[in-house]
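One such given next:

>
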Amino acid sequence: MLNREYFPHVFGAATLVLVFGAASVHPQPAPPNAAGATKSQGSTVQGTFGAQPWTDTSGTSASGASAAGTGASGTDAAAGKLGKADRELMRAMAHVNLAEIEAGKMAQSKSKNQQILRYSQQMIDDHTKAQGELQSLADAKGMNLPSAPDKKRQDMLKKLGALSGAAFDSAYMAQGGVNSHKESHEMLQAAQTRATDPELKALAGKALPTVDQHLKMAQDVKSGKGGGATVSGASGSSGVQ
């Protein structure tokens, strides 16, 4: 026959098992999406500068992902505040801004054409401001933006960096100027119907007039309007923005 003093000890031990056992099976958060949840879509890159609109060209290899900045992280999925199309648009917009800023700085150091120097400085200023507004929206939505252009755009920027003189001026204005802003216009127009987040729609709508202004400026510089020399020679079918 069991001693009565035995039951309190057994009951106490069982209680501890239940308490600590329940704590040990507390559900853990899901791991971040492997490889940053960014897919390399649109394998064709045309022209000197970039990819087609709405193409998320984040690097897929380990080295490419590193070069492309943070890309999309598990934070995006965990936040649950933006749909996939909205996240892709925001990443595309960030890649565009960052590439335009870098190309503009390159033009500032390489070009001797005063119109191109003025144009590239405005690209730096306007896209820096646009990236700041995009970053503010991303912070509010709990999303991480890339901190550098995607790998494909970095590769194209390297090609542009290998040029100099008139060849650089022509390539920069054809790709980073005219063609890129035509594509950017199409991308932001598409955002008006594809984006589901109202704040993102508003941001895309706000950016459209600036993109159109950049396109008009690039066309004027390329044709030599405003007293500058005509910039011609290089042509392409797509661009950064």
